[in-house]
Amino acid sequence: MPKITRRAVDALRPDRSGKDIFHWDAGDGALKGFGIRMKPSGAASYLVQYRNKEGRTRRLVIGKVGTLTPDEARTLASDALRAAAKGSDPSAERHAVRGAVTVSELCDVYVAGSKGRIKPSTWAADQSRIETHVKPLIGRFTVRSLTTADIERMKADIIAGKTAKPRKTEGRGGVATGGAGVAARTLGMMATILEYARRSLKLIKENPARGVIKPPDRKQRRFLTIEEMAKLGQTIREAEARGGNAIALSAIRLLLLTGLRRMECLGLRRSWVDSRAGCIRFEDTKSGAQLRPIGKKALELIAARPVRDGCPWIFPASHGDGHLIGLPKILRRICLKAGLSGVTVHVLRHSFAATAAEMGFSELTIAGLLGHSVPGITARYAHMPDSALVAAADRVAARIASALNGKTKAEIIPLRYGVGGASPA
Prior knowledge:
By secondary structure, the chain is of the alpha+beta class. It is about 45% helix and about 10% strand. The protein starts with 5 loop residues before the first helix and ends in a 21-residue tail after the last helix.
């Protein structure tokens, strides 16, 4: 092959026999040892071949064809050859550097590279898990030395709560906890990061997180019965009469009336609420941008919330410009007063679903009401929510609102076919 130039590179073709082929720089002004390796797939890289001080032949990949120009690659190859002539071994040094990369350093590279490519909420959650759990437990290990046993120990330590942290004495923020759920999410994230180290960075040949079994998800079985909703409603009214946190108490009501996730409710903006269509137009959720049908009772509660000048939130924080975040603690106090145990914010969401199921709505309809990705129902409505789901949301919200007001006997109304109930026999 003649001297490696842009034209010569463009003319390269992979070998049909399925083998890697090498093209070395030749002709006038050629750089001995500088070449290109092309794989059967057509992927090609610039490389330099030299002998180290022990007389062993080494090859050092300079960069990908297409990323570097021939002249840029030749300059880098020339630098490597000069270093080798002075007794250095650029290939061995690169491998040594790769071998010394720690898990903490890998995580930093991953976080920096993923910013803007994944959802901001996912990026923030990944960063939090890395700083809270990964770095304290395995951050000091080199990536190449990491074993499956190390990942298993990390999982066990997170489940045991070894990396849990107390709440800050000042400022806003949640509590870093342990447990099976946190361990499962951290393990999934680490599997992704280590796969990035394997496939993109070529730091490892095998992913040590592969094969590590995630802790089983604890299925939510606790839900509020109609009678318990009545107790909760009575306690909320008593708290309001005593001057309790009206914003948080309204948020608890809305969570029950809609089945929203905690941050979907607390981060709800007025501009997202479409009272005419009977839905919330979320710009972003766990499943992406979404329309979520909600009932009239929920819309009435939202409309009754006082409006602060320049504040976009339905449930603003007591201090600062953000939205309410300290709901779990307030919910625990309210439930303690009501004599209810085992009630979390997610139990309110599950209670909405359980009420819908008790009323005879199908699993598919309930999934649509909760905002799960359901092909054929929520996914296909780009501008208006499904009228059947809006009707279902309205009926479930009305039933829960009635229970919160102390009416525990349900009004029996036969479901119309097409609104999520069973089809007629």
